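Incident log, structure service

09:12 report received: a user says their structure output differs between two submissions of the same chain.
09:20 pulled the input from the user's history:
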Amino acid sequence: MVYPPELDDPDRRPPISSTPVRPAMPATGATTTDSALDVPSFAQLFRLMGRALRLRCPNCGVGAVVRPWATVNDSCSHCGFRFTRSSDSYFSGAMLANLAVAEGLFAVAFGVSLIASWPNVPWDTLTWALPLGIAIAPALLLPFAKVAWLTFDVAFRPITPDEIVAPR
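09:34 re-ran on a clean worker, output below:
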């Protein structure tokens, strides 16, 4: 590409190579999953979400994904599916979604209690109960958030044979 002399600035030139750089992986030997995106049917999505509500493996529905409390197992004890599909920060999005749901629950609980008790709003109770609830809700919902995150990932990025390890 040829630029006019007044625009010949090296900072404004496109990069010579547009080869994407892969993020660094942890030293544990885990590999990233590069499967193609797929849109699941509603039946597949409902089946997978049923497994997520029971905190079970999205691949087989038998093995437990988390152990107490919200610590994700390395792989499924039944089918060998590796739960961490990319890097150590794989479940960061689950924690952000968990916090957003907890904040949403706070807003809904505050609005419902305000409307239900109007005009005699129990401000003292709301002052103590709702912040306590917002502190406890993320801890209670974290296992479900992590399994839901994994399940949605499996629904839209199908499992590859490389992700199946020998069951323990």
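09:41 both user submissions now match this output. Likely a transient worker issue. Closing.
09:42 reviewer note: The chain has one domain: 37-157. The longest strand covers residues 66-67.
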